[in-house]
Amino acid sequence: AQSVAQPEDQVNVAEGNPLTVKCTYSVSGNPYLFWYVQYPNRGLQFLLKYITGDNLVKGSYGFEAEFNKSQTSFHLKKPSALVSDSALYFCAVRDILGYFTGNTPLVFGKGTRLSVIA
Amino acid sequence: DVKVTQSSRYLVKRTGEKVFLECVQDMDHENMFWYRQDPGLGLRLIYFSYDVKMKEKGDIPEGYSVSREKKERFSLILESASTNQTSMYLCASSLSGQSEAFFGQGTRLTVV
To answer: For position B83, what pLDDT does the model report?
Structure first.
């Protein structure tokens, strides 16, 4: 079965500093990986995805993520945090093996609350 | 832009009522999903559908059913609402396995 772990419930970072939000995954085959952001009382917004190709993926609002197959990780990063980045961040995975042999949905982690302090 | 519309932002229902949550997407997506979001538990999948009239159980289907009679519409039904179904419900759709999912604004359901 596929699963996602976000080991930190909360990440605090000073404005202007680099930020990292961690994600590890478990799948039977190969993964499709996604990051989403949620602002208060809103639905989830897509940030970026890894399907294949370069391990470093660039997305919206200056965010990027690095796929590391050996460590089964897909950490979200940003070189310089903004106060407006404060939100809830979700990592999600879909198992490619499952996609071809059946239909599998996105499985989400529990979320990491990012707080950027001015 | 893809639009996923959930019929209500806020709902208050009584215990034992039958509750319908409606979701409509406008981009001809094959896949549609219903999740519930609770603090500390993240998003948990209730049901998903990969085609009209097709449905698959997710991780927490008990107490729920779904209907997909048309491609653009995916309804979540609480057969007999209970207080432990008080939650934020999120609908999503995606074109394919490689595609990102697009989410509605969510319905905050309170069962009293």
So the answer is: 97
Report how far residue B46's alpha carbon sits from residue A4's, in angstroms, rounded to the nearest whole number.
17
Name which of B4, B101, B104 is nearest A106 (Cβ-Cβ). Answer: B101
In total, how many domains does chain A have? 1
Mean pLDDT, residues A53-80: 95
Task: Give me the residue spans of the domains in chain B.
Answer: 4-111
Nearest to B97 among A44, A92, A94 (CB): A94
pLDDT at residue A52 in the model: 85
CB contact under 8 A, B98 and A9: no
Please identify every stretch of chain B with a pLDDT value under 50, giving residue numbers as ranges.
none
Please answer whether residues A56 and A78 qualify as being in contact, where contact means their C-beta atoms are separated by less than 8 angstroms.
no
Instruction: Give tens-digit pLDDT for A31-54.
Output: 899 999 999 878 899 999 998 889
* CA distances, B111 to each of B15, B19, B88 (Å): 6, 10, 11
* CA angle (B80 as vertex; B75, B86 as ends), nearest 5: 75
Q: Just give the CATH number of B4-111.
A: 2.60.40.10
